[in-house]
């Protein structure tokens, strides 16, 4: 099957991709979202080409405007810490001290340390995805991502990516779509 975006050798329904493993793969295989599971696609990628500029050069210029990044943030209020995922277009950055802090009603918010993000998600750094996050996590998604017909996101591993309809992300557990998350 040909991928709807990018220049990948092939794409396959993510639920049937045998070498796709981890929490994201488990979540895809148990998918009950409004978007049919066979529209969640997996593409194999070279982890040595994971840097955004190199990735886009190798896999297609159209990915500049159709890729989304998922970052883990830590919000603190009254001595309690809340971890959340934030998904924005790769051409923008997460408004951590504005939109995230307000939405999570936190006194302070910042990007979670790499080791915390990896340990808490069970995913590889550089491949963290909003699909398959721990139960109860807020998943803040910029509205621009949900409006894309197709978007490229992480697969939970540095090798491989998921291509999903943007609206599929709005239906994730804990998802909140915000107009001003990416700046």
UniProtKB/TrEMBL annotation:
Keywords: Aminoacyl-tRNA synthetase, Ligase
Molecular functions per Gene Ontology: aminoacyl-tRNA deacylase activity; aminoacyl-tRNA ligase activity
Keyword flag Aminoacyl-tRNA synthetase: yes
Superkingdom, taxonomy of origin: Bacteria
Source organism per UniProt: Streptomyces abyssalis
Family annotation (Pfam families): tRNA_edit (PF04073)
Designated name of the protein: Prolyl-tRNA synthetase
Domain YbaK/aminoacyl-tRNA synthetase-associated, residue spans: 47-169
């Amino acid at each position: 099957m040909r991928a709807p975006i990018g220049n990948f050798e092939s794409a396959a329904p993510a639920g049937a991709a045998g070498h796709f493993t981890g929490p994201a793969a488990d979540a895809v295989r148990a998918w009950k979202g409004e978007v049919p599971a066979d529209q969640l696609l997996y593409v194999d990628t070279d982890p040595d080409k994971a840097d955004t500029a190199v990735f886009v050069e190798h896999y297609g210029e159209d990915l500049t405007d159709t890729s989304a990044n998922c970052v883990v943030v830590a919000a603190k209020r009254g001595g309690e810490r809340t971890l959340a995922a934030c998904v924005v277009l790769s051409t923008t950055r997460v408004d951590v001290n504005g939109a995230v802090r307000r939405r999570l009603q936190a006194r302070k918010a910042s990007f979670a340390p790499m080791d915390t993000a990896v340990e808490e998600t069970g995913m590889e750094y550089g491949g963290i995805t909003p699909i398959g996050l721990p139960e109860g996590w807020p998943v803040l998604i910029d509205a621009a991502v949900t409006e894309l017909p197709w978007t490229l996101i992480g697969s939970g591993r540095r090798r491989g990516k998921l291509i999903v309809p943007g609206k599929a992300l709005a239906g994730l557990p804990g998802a909140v779509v915000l107009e001003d998350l990416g700046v």
